[in-house]
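Exam review. A common question shows you a sequence with its structure tokens and asks you to describe the fold in words. Practice with the pair below. Do the first one on your own.
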Amino acid sequence: MIREYARDVPPIRADEHALYRVMVNLIANSLEAMAPGGRLTLRVAWPDGPRRLGHHRRVQIEIEDTGPGIAAREREQIFNPFYTTKEGGTGLGLAIAHKIVEEHGGTIDVASTPGVQTTFRMVLPVIPDEPPEA
């Protein structure tokens, strides 16, 4: 596993148990999809740049794998409840992950090149800076 973490990324306002569930689901899906010897990369970065002022800063978290990828027609459906391509799957994991991220004021999307890689990207708001005391 490769870790690429930006410096000085501030904390996000989140239910740690809920986001843990999201991360476990995304990482488990990646590991299941990859052949032995595949590469999993976790990234944390500033999508807006680290020095952006105001209360609208965000943190970007990416989970990228070198699995078989996801076809375009499947990418359009994967966050829908009960949609699955796994035999015996419930189709709820990504739907629940999507709901949790949205409940945190964030977004989640996927980019994939079949046969090359898949990247799930979450963007979540940071805890706003405290206003200066008068």
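Now try the second one, then compare your answer with the model answer below.
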Amino acid sequence: MMRQPTIFSDTLGLFPPWQVTTVAFSEEENRLDITVAFDYSNFEICPDCGGAIVPTLGTAEVWHHSDFFQHPTYLYAHIPRFACACGREVPVERPWSRPGSKFALVQ
């Protein structure tokens, strides 16, 4: 198992509240697996009204990149959802999905 999450966080453009928690390379499959986590304690204010937000159910997502660090790569993340008293669902940005990143949503 690789233990260099900082390199991968930087390459993915992650910053708090996102962080790489595990990185594993399978020589048999020539495949890289990256798990990303969200720190809920760093996300507390609605960007629209400034009110407090609360977490609701999120979704598990898997993203694929065919040539990340020269290997097929799967990125696993639980995407949180938040609700605000103003009635708005507050979206959470996925930095690895920015235009040009070449990560595609698998599920």
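Model answer, second protein: DSSP finds one helix and six strands in the chain. The longest helix spans residues 5-12. Full marks require stating both points clearly.
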